[in-house]
Amino acid sequence: MEAAILYPVVLTLTLLLVNTALWFHARNVALAAAQEGVRVARAYGSNLSASTVVAERFAQRVGGSFLLAPHASAGRTGGTVSVTVQGEALALVPLLKLTVTQVAHAPIERWSTPT
């Protein structure tokens, strides 16, 4: 009788552990995509639309089916650029929605003259 109770508990814990690992992997992919977008956006003379395209393509190429429906947005504030990548992590549990949001910031490159 104890085994009949123990198997579903072990199976549920294993499934939750695997879902957690998938969520962490999707977070890492989203952060890497945001960093790629920032790398493009902070370059001298670059524009924000190019950074979002690069970030989304990177997330799709690297994330595969682990990061679903990735979407990137970028913004500039003062001398800093930021790229945000959002998506959903693959979930093995039905009706479980695992949202992923990662942001990367960096200073904008600019030319300066020595004083």
From TrEMBL:
Domain TadE-like: 2-39
Organism: Microbispora bryophytorum
The protein's name in its UniProt record: Membrane protein
Pfam families tied to this protein: TadE
Listed InterPro entries: TadE-like_dom
